[in-house]
Recover the amino acids of this structure.
């Protein structure tokens, strides 16, 4: 089964298939040179690894059982059902998980200066500013004009001093408590505002199996899987409630093409999670900040992948010996690392580095505060003009 990074092929004009590169391509070429055999490649017509359907095996497993091929490769998972009819030489362990698209950064709006506090906090502060002057007016010994008291208490929110003095201990305690609460509110707002403006906000999205199960159950997410994969069986046979929920919303997709083999989509929709081998996702998509894809840290299960052959295959012992040597010497790991760093280099060459750290402030980020400043200055100017006009009119009447 051709698979990018694993078993990449090329079909010429005569229909001859030959290996190009890939992890398992390196393995088969190594075995061919060491054991001195030649090989011919065949593709399963149904583009499947192998499932037992309608009383017979499909895909590569079926080809082995029908003696159409001696060996099968291409990220072939060793399952209990498959092992009952064919033999395997395991050479890797894979974990199965999900990959989703990392949500884009939240674009700051002109009202972003309101984001440091939730609307309940803003509502509480507004009610306090309206109610507390009347309460202080009743409790204070010194009878301060309501206008002065109201403006002074609002000014405390903007770090301004009060416009009156009082010798009463009760008055000092009341005003002092108000000043302290407003200072804490103002300082907290300033700190949160700078952090929310300079560090881009982003929705972490779905990152756990439990969250994915909830999103799938509510119809917000779909789970895609390559047609014919055994990973679906892991979900359907699981006793975990979350995995059972996910299994009822599986959508089988066709990620196969004769030219390039099986390739996961370069772009994933915002509401799609793809189920597959974790190690392949790492090869295909890479890791942040070089990728906008997130591979779940959680796994739904682990299993072996290996080279498949018919029961009683003559050369199994020699193949097992040489594959064990490749694994124990670290050569197979070296092949994987080469593919992984090749993927990283491709992402770096494309300039796909996603910066999610601090960023400089722009005029758009501060558009809301600047707008309020402009409105305040305009109102102040209009009030000043109206005051002058009123004074001129009253003087003229006299």
């Amino acid at each position: 089964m051709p698979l990018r990074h694993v078993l990449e092929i090329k079909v010429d004009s005569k229909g001859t298939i030959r290996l190009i590169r890939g992890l398992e391509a390196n393995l088969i070429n190594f075995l061919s040179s060491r054991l001195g055999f030649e090989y011919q490649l065949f593709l399963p017509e149904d583009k499947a690894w192998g499932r037992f359907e309608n009383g017979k095996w499909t895909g590569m497993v079926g080809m082995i059982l029908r003696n159409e091929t001696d060996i099968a490769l291409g990220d072939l998972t060793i399952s209990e059902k498959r092992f009952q009819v064919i033999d395997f030489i395991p050479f890797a362990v894979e974990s199965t998980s999900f990959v989703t698209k990392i949500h884009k950064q939240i674009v700051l709006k002109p009202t972003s200066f309101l984001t440091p506090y939730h609307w309940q906090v803003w509502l509480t502060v507004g009610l306090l500013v309206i109610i507390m002057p009347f309460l202080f007016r009743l409790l204070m010994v010194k009878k301060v004009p309501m206008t002065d008291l109201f403006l002074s208490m609002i000014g405390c929110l903007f770090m301004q001093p009060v416009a009156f003095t009082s010798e009463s201990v009760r008055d000092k305690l009341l005003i002092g408590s108000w000043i302290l609460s407003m200072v804490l509110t103002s300082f907290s707002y300033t700190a949160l505002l700078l952090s929310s403006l300079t560090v881009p906000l982003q929705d972490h999205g779905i990152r756990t199996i439990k969250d994915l199960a909830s999103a799938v159950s509510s119809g917000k997410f779909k789970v895609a899987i390559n047609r014919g994969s055994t990973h679906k069986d892991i979900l359907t046979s699981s006793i975990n409630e979350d995995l059972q929920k996910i299994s009822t919303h599986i959508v089988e997709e066709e990620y196969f093409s004769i030219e390039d083999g099986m390739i996961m989509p370069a772009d994933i929709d915002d509401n799609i999670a793809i189920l597959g081998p974790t190690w392949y996702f790492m090869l295909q998509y890479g890791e942040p900040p070089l990728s906008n894809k997130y591979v779940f840290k959680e796994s739904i299960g682990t299993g072996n992948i290996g080279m498949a052959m018919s029961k009683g295959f003559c050369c199994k012992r020699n193949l097992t010996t040489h594959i064990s040597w490749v694994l124990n010497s670290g050569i197979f790991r070296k092949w994987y690392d080469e593919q992984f760093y090749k993927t990283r280099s491709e992402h770096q060459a494309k300039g796909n580095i996603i910066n999610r750290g601090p960023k400089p402030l722009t005029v758009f980020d501060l558009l809301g505060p600047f707008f309020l400043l402009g409105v305040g200055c305009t109102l102040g100017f209009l009030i000043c003009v109206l005051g002058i006009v009123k004074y001129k009119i009253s003087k003229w009447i006299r």
